[in-house]
Amino acid sequence: MTAPEVGQSRQVLNIGMIGLDTSHVLAFMKLLHDKNDPWHVPGGKVVAAYPGGSPDFPSSISKVSEYTATLREEYGVRIVDSPEEVAEASDAVLLHSVDGRVHLPQFRRIAGYGKPVFIDKPFAVSSADAREIVRLAEAHRVPLMSASSLRYAKALQDAIGSGGKSPVIGADACGPMALEPTQPGLFWYGIHAAEMLYAVMGEGCVQVTAVTSDDHDVAAGLWSDGRIGVIRGNRKGNGSFGVAIHREKGIDWVYAQSDPKPKYASLLEVILDMFRTGVPPLPASETLEVIRFLEAANESRKTGRTVYLDKTASKAGEAS
């Protein structure tokens, strides 16, 4: 099966899934396939899936058998033996693997098919892997996007897009920040706060300084225009996500889960639009910067030093 031409698609897209080891799989399946769901997202059906799973990652491998059986028995999805078979059978691919370490090797195996691909969070767990994924996508002309569902939470998008607002001068994003040994530092859950922060601030961070304790993390970024953006996370059981959007006139306080529309439905609508049009909703440069922001935050929380996103600038600062 060849990739659909940009701007054209059949009425219903055949979608493939790679990585049946995250709750996102079942959430997406229900939204796509259950027409009685009040938040049903029409336009796609999952036809093939590769289970995957990381043996050294309990949260991953423990879900694979159950989720594979659910897709096969409840939804009639064909379970295949390789990522390549998924790409061959599909118009577009949801690369859901919960382990960010495997995203590059899995994407490398399907990039040559030229199909649109969504890579679930975290896009990668190093900026080197992230850059290589983008390079492969560009080389094979693959429409590509990655995002946390929190970026597209309706309450946040409404606050960002509401008319008549004064310019944004900064933002503070917060949420739970559990740590996972296989996913370095803040990549596991810090990705959510970072994605919300970048949804508000956009690109342009030049340096990051982090403070960490057993129960909390804070990473403050300085943007090239002088604005400051902050992510704050806790490991005290507070699972709420929110953003304070600082404007020249006033502050918007956003509780990301306040709207009844599921964040996965909002994200899936954006994904399907990219699958149909071939046009990613975000520039690759922003996705790369989010990963580098977290990488710099990880380095700063270890050393206590300010870390430049441009590694050349960082080395120059050390020499001065």
From TrEMBL:
<comment type="similarity">
    <text>Belongs to the Gfo/Idh/MocA family.</text>
</comment>
<feature type="domain" description="Gfo/Idh/MocA-like oxidoreductase N-terminal">
    <location>
        <begin position="65"/>
        <end position="145"/>
    </location>
</feature>
<keyword id="KW-0560">Oxidoreductase</keyword>
<dbReference type="GO" id="GO:0016491">
    <property type="term" value="F:oxidoreductase activity"/>
</dbReference>
<dbReference type="InterPro" id="IPR036291">
    <property type="entry name" value="NAD(P)-bd_dom_sf"/>
</dbReference>
<dbReference type="InterPro" id="IPR051317">
    <property type="entry name" value="Gfo/Idh/MocA_oxidoreduct"/>
</dbReference>
<dbReference type="Pfam" id="PF01408">
    <property type="entry name" value="GFO_IDH_MocA"/>
</dbReference>
<protein>
    <submittedName>
        <fullName>Gfo/Idh/MocA family oxidoreductase</fullName>
    </submittedName>
</protein>
<dbReference type="GO" id="GO:0000166">
    <property type="term" value="F:nucleotide binding"/>
</dbReference>
<dbReference type="InterPro" id="IPR000683">
    <property type="entry name" value="Gfo/Idh/MocA-like_OxRdtase_N"/>
</dbReference>
